[in-house]
Design a protein that fits this description.
Layout (H helix, E strand, L loop, with lengths): L3 E7 L2 H17 L4 E7 L21 H15 L4 E8 L5 H13 L7 E6 L4 H5 L2 H7 L5 H5 L9 H9 L3 H8 L1 H15 L11 H16 L2
Parallel strand pairs: 1-2, 1-3, 3-4
Helix pairs in contact: 1-9, 7-8
Length: 221
């Protein structure tokens, strides 16, 4: 039985925390050694107009660097390696975003084995998808707010989560600015994701991510 290695690219630090805990659980459930490295970037950014040109090194957002990164992985990754890109859809049309990402992959001379996993609308939807883990971390959460959430809907997801678990709610966090929002998102990830059940999450985009990881592992069995 062969081992498999994954390079995981995610747009921010809070997403990295969630993925670290999820991947540890997936790895423990597999009958092989799954190794992985998680790379967190400084936001989503935009794809460059010229996909074949190396990006500006000053740009640290994930999509800005993605064409160059995938070309590099295509040249260096082995048969038992794969790349997994995890991004938020935000307000983008998911199908259009997926098509744009596939165009980047198709532009590579040697495309690496790759999966694009799009969290709808934001990766906080994965935390909301496990109500039990969320309430274990935040037992005083406003259930009336949580019950109004439609899973993987376009509804200002992180704001809804903040309204359910943060005293000052999303409006108060926005007044404090983005750095404070980023700190709180990391806090939510650290508290909720260790208790998440990878087999029982109501988020379809979360399930897609788990299925892709196990699919890569199965191909290497």
């Amino acid at each position: 039985m062969k081992n498999v290695h994954l390079e995981i690219l995610v747009e921010d630090q809070s997403g990295s925390i969630i993925l670290e805990n999820i991947l540890a659980k997936i790895s423990a459930s597999l009958p092989l050694d799954l190794t992985y490295r998680i790379h967190a970037y400084s936001g989503l950014g935009k794809l460059p107009k010229n996909l074949s040109k190396d990006n500006d090194p000053q740009k640290r957002a994930l999509l800005s660097k993605l064409p160059m990164l995938l070309r590099g992985y295509g040249r260096s990754s082995g048969e038992q390696s794969a790349v997994v890109i995890v991004v938020d859809s935000d307000k983008n049309d998911c199908k259009m975003l997926k098509n744009e990402l596939n165009e980047v992959l198709d532009s590579c001379l040697i495309p690496p084995k790759t999966a694009f996993c799009i969290a709808i609308e934001e990766i906080e939807a994965w935390l909301l998808g496990d109500r039990q883990a969320l309430l274990e971390a935040y037992p005083q959460a406003k259930t009336s707010v949580l019950e109004g959430y439609i899973q993987d809907s376009i509804c200002n997801t992180w704001e809804l989560l903040a309204d359910a678990i943060v005293k000052e709610m999303s409006k108060g966090l926005k007044k404090k600015g983005y750095p404070e929002i980023g700190i709180r998102k990391c806090e939510w990830a650290e508290k909720v994701s260790p208790n998440m059940n990878i087999q029982n999450n109501s988020s379809p985009s979360f399930q897609h991510f788990v299925n892709k990881i196990t699919e890569f592992a199965g191909q290497s069995a």
